[in-house]
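Protein data sheet
==================
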Amino acid sequence: MAIAKAERLMNLALCLLGTRRPLSKRELRASIEAYLEAGSDDSFNRMFERDKDDLRELGLVIETVENLDGEVGYLARRDSNRLPPITLDAEEAAALGLAAKVWQQARLAGAASGALQKLRAAGLPEDVDPYEAHGALEPRIPVHEAAFEPLMLACRDRRPVVFDYRKASAAHPEPRHVEPWALECWRGHWYLAGFDRDRGAERVFRLSRITGRVRSRGTGFTAPVPDVVTVRETVASWAGEIAEGTALIRLRSGAGYPLRAKATRVRELGDGWDELEIPYGHGLDAWLVEFGPDVLVLEPAELRADVVDRLRAVAKG
């Protein structure tokens, strides 16, 4: 929205809220400088009608009143445009406080803290402090990736983006043209779900593998956005969480605790190695590569081959 229009809407809203009686178009035109500069009555009428509709879309309740002379006037009564009292119990205030703490490492921290301050001013119970810890655990979602904020805004604005992305099995990044749908944090990492225009299908991207700057590309989506974007389930399936069988691996003693937590059977081999049986699903090879030389895949053969291919690709890079 242009600054001139925003100022004009603000002036119109203040006039309608500040009057005790309905104001006619003639009076409003004489009170607002932007309307005085309108070239003709027709241009003023079109501008006023658009502004009035815009204010109503923003939530301002504008009444139309006809006086005894048949002249139409407008006003926005304060009692019709006042929010109801805000009442929060201790549990609700605690939930808001925890939600604000989640974003302490993102640029949303200031907005979240400001919102809580406004709730306090609007009548949040004095005996409730949303900033105090209300349990033994304090949730935090770290946001270290520079791509987080531009992607969050692109998801909100439904704006396509392009970025360079390096797959786990690739030595060099390649450009991806994406219509972003949603962001979600899973196992300490942020992921983006969206429609990959180059591949013509839904894809999930790990933000830590995005290199360079996220750039906007055009407007409008070419693919419909699902009603429910299941980032977590999609990432889980690619990370081997949805098991289709079992895999047998050797794991160095004292290493790979996430793998040990998933293991259905553990056997000590000696010489600093253990043998584990873990659920095997699509994408498990990408997860095993992250443990480097601490993991050796025994079976199945296709999983071992996939891990070796990924390690060779990383070594070439």
Remarks:
- Residues 269 and 275 are 7 Å apart (CA to CA).
- DSSP finds eleven helices and twelve strands in the chain.
- The first helix runs from residue 3 to 18.
